[in-house]
Write a structure and sequence with these properties.
Blueprint lengths: L23 E12 L7 E12 L3 E5 L6 H8 L7 E6 L2 E2 L7 E4 L3 H4 L6 H11 L4 H14 L15 H14 L4 E5 L7 H18 L2 E5 L3 H7 L2 E5 L6 E6 L15 H18 L14
Helix pairs in contact: 3-4, 3-5, 4-5, 7-8
The structure holds adenosine-5'-triphosphate (ATP) and magnesium ion.
The site of adenosine-5'-triphosphate has 14 residues, from strand 2 and helix 1.
Length: 292
């Protein structure tokens, strides 16, 4: 069966009712971002994005380099002023970094403080949250255990490998017990083996904690392996190419899931979308061969 006849095409973005749906964690309404730096040409990064993420969903975002993925993440995290539109988190418009949201940035090296120990790094946001010393320490140690770094608690970040540092950044995010976790290409700089382990870690933490996750990656396989949906972005200025539902079994495994025929179909579909996006096709442009 051709991929285009598979249920995928019927899974084009079905807009959820944005207003007053308690099951919606994040709602992007007409989000638009143009960078307007004095003395420099304007850069229209995001033309328009509308989509919702339900509570407890794990959604991946892929798109060509420079498409506006980081801009999108920073907009959701309240770190950028939108040109128009709004990001609504649990029914309230985001106007600055919201409570209950944690972000894991790509440059983990720069996001950890070298003069603090691993445990102190993990404890820092808990301190800002107002937790007492004993509670902070207990939560930090639990999170470090979760990511397999108990032994490294008293070391400094620079004494650890890249993959371990990234796990510290993840531990810091989960110790905070966020309701929404944003991750921007968090595994781009780690080796394949560590990456597979971290992917499984994210899935198991997501399942256990019930947190809503938005995971940006340039890796199509990773997006399909991790996500329940894959949001494919167009080239800049960004619009939504397609919102692909990943109808793979919830229990994922690096070997069996990746060799599943459906995994291959989904990967092929997302790959074709990215190729189109790179060529500058917009979502309304017909697929080659006259498909849907
Ligand atoms: N602070 C800024 N000022 C001006 N332009 C910016 C700024 N930040 C990003 N841009 C531009 O906005 C566009 C989108 O950038 P963004 O970093 O969001 O893309 P991306 O999809 O995350 O790319 P990558 O895959 O390479 O990480 C790019 O053209 C970039 O040059
Ligand atoms: Mg980026």
């Amino acid at each position: 069966m051709s991929i285009l006849k598979a249920p995928l095409t019927s899974l084009r973005p079905e807009r959820e009712t944005p207003a007053r749906d308690d099951a919606v964690a994040l709602d992007l309404r007409g989000v638009q971002k143009t960078y307007d730096t004095p003395g420099r040409p304007q850069v229209e990064a995001i033309r328009r994005l509308d989509f919702s993420i339900r509570k407890g969903e794990l959604v991946c975002v892929v798109g060509p380099s420079g498409a506006g993925k980081t801009t999108l993440l920073r907009s959701i995290a309240g770190l950028l002023e939108l040109t128009s539109g709004e990001v609504v988190l649990d029914g309230a418009t985001v106007t600055g970094p919201p409570q209950g949201m944690a972000v894991v940035f790509q440059e983990y090296g720069r996001s950890l403080f070298p003069w603090m120990t691993v445990r102190q790094n993990v404890e820092l946001p808990l301190k800002e949250k107002g937790l007492g010393k004993v509670e902070r320490r207990a939560k930090a140690l639990t999170a470090l255990e979760e990511v397999g770094l108990t032994e490294a608690a008293d070391q400094h970040p620079w004494q650890l490998s890249g993959g371990m540092q990234q796990r510290v950044a993840i531990a810091r995010a989960i110790a905070y017990e966020p309701t929404v976790l944003l991750m921007d290409e968090p595994f781009a700089a780690v080796d394949a083996q560590t990456r597979a382990e971290l992917e499984d870690l994210v899935r198991s933490l997501w399942k256990r904690l019930g947190v809503t996750v938005l995971f940006v990656t340039h890796d199509i396989d990773e997006a399909v392996y991790l996500g329940e949906r894959v949001i494919v972005l167009s080239n800049r200025p960004t619009v939504l190419m397609e919102d692909v539902r990943v109808d793979l079994p919830a229990k994922r495994d690096q070997l069996t899931t990746r060799s599943d025929a459906r995994f291959g179909e989904l990967r092929g579909h997302v790959y074709a979308l990215i190729q189109r996006a790179k060529r500058g096709d917009r979502p309304d442009a017909p697929l080659p061969g006259g498909g849907a």
